[in-house]
Design brief:
This protein is α/β, with parallel strands linked by helices. It contains five helices and seven strands, in the order H-E-E-H-H-E-E-E-E-E-H-H. The longest helix has 25 residues. The chain starts with a helix and ends with a helix.
């Protein structure tokens, strides 16, 4: 009887180890801008400091309905490190040499740069998106 319990213990231990290893591998993910194409628009914000990035997180939290309905993924860059702020699971993002120098860059569903802004103005950004042909189709205004 002790042998059966021992075998069950060994099998459960091995199962748990394999499961824990598989889950630890899933926690880290890498994506590129190309993987967001045709699924999401991307807003890249160059923050000057961690505090400015925190403000971007607060904005995204407050505006999550507007950002979601416009299929926006918000990426903040601080100290040349891009971070997903909103709209996609927390993954490491690679900008593939597309590290914009402007304060705010808007990338469309087709992965092309649609607008560059020297300052952050959500109303202007939303207006730009809402004038795009694909957005008009989404809204049924075409």
């Amino acid at each position: 009887m002790k042998i059966i319990y021992f075998i069950i213990f060994i099998l459960l231990t091995e199962f748990y180890s394999a499961f824990a290893f598989a889950n630890s591998a899933k926690k880290h993910c890498d994506i590129t801008l190309g993987e967001l194409a045709w699924k999401n628009r991307v807003l890249i914000y160059n923050a000057q400091s961690k505090a400015e990035l925190d403000d971007l997180y607060a904005f995204a939290e407050y505006e999550q309905v507007s950002l979601t309905e416009r299929k926006l993924v918000v990426i903040g860059i601080v100290e040349q490190q891009p971070v997903i702020v909103f709209g996609y699971p927390k993954c490491h993002i690679s900008l593939n040499k597309q590290n914009p120098k402007t304060k705010v860059t808007l990338i469309g569903l087709d992965s092309t740069v649609k607008a560059k802004y020297s300052s952050f103005d959500s109303d202007l950004i939303y207006s730009t998106i809402d004038k795009m042909p694909m957005r008009k189709t989404e809204l049924g205004r075409y």
